[in-house]
Amino acid sequence: MDRRRFLQGATIASGVALAAKGIAKAAPATTAAGMVPRVCSTWDFGVAANQAAWKVLAAGGRALDAVEQGARVPEADLRNHSVGRAGYPDRDGKVTLDASIMDENGNCGAVAAIEHIAHPISVARRVMERTPHVLLVGDGALQFAIEQGFPREELLTPESEKAWHEWLKTAKYKPVANSEVRSYNAGPGGTPGDASNHDTIGMLAIDAKGNLSGACTTSGMAWKLHGRVGDSPIIGAGLYVDNDVGGATSTGVGEEVIRNVGSFLVVELMRQGRSPEDACREAVERILRKKPNAKDLQVGFLAMDKKGNVGAWAIQKGFSYAVCDAAKQDALIPGKSSY
Ligand code: SD4
């Protein structure tokens, strides 16, 4: 059945892609059910990712297809050293990627520490739709991806390799807050030494039927120990969606998010009546209460509730998130923060 459902999904997705070409702007601002199709995602690079997702939503497509298509944009972007191809490697020079996806029915799939596959978000979706499992890791995830027809590729670009060699000169591991914003703005040929560490794309969408889905994909913390897995592929930590309540995703130092099961916490706080922003703030403050010196790190949460309201909160200034709907397709919003 999984195969049948997947094939149906593929047919719908390609129909959506065709339809999207012509009518992206014709999307309803609200649907008959009063729902507002909308997509949001973390960091500046979320703007371009949202626009790809919006094409799916604008054509009446499913939020799940939207977040997959959106997440694939930074995965393919060579200027982005924290997601997908061109992601900075671990301390051994290996690019290992983490990704997760979750749909409106509570189905989820993830891959962790996968090498040589440029679009881990799509492998995560295959794990969800074609296996009885939730998470595949390392060589097993790569083997599954190859069996599924994903090409095996070298993901370490000359620029990333150069940055790694620079890092090896001191080989200090110290996560830097908001690093990717600086490196991304530097563009191709920008100073790689400036862009030490991280920044994930987490994306949440609500479609015209009022269904929510989310995706999260990253190369994790640059220069990490080989085999280190962050929050992004851990359902409940880096991503969580409950179609009755809302969804949440995170970016920043994954260890702090995992310790507090951050995204699940944000959704549960929304279930208790908190707004998305308030829920994100409380999750950040819980991290800070449990570990006050986490104030020197960055963690940001982004949430969307069942009505499509979006909110975010981060430990430190510098976090940003992008929101896209029928009214405005390129909004970039500075995240509020505790410090
Ligand atoms: C991780 N949360 O692997 C990811 C990295 C990240 O902003 O988002 N950095 O811990």
UniProtKB/TrEMBL annotation:
GO molecular function: N4-(beta-N-acetylglucosaminyl)-L-asparaginase activity
InterPro entries in the cross-refs: Ntn_hydrolases_N, Peptidase_T2, TAT_signal
Keyword Signal in annotation: yes
Membrane-spanning ranges: none
Secretion signal, residue range per the UniProt entry: 1-26
Matches recorded under Gene3D superfamilies: (Glycosyl)asparaginase (3.60.20.30)
EC number: 3.5.1.26
Record key words, sorted: Hydrolase, Signal
Entry superkingdom: Bacteria
Protein name listed in UniProt: N4-(Beta-N-acetylglucosaminyl)-L-asparaginase
Organism: Luteibacter jiangsuensis
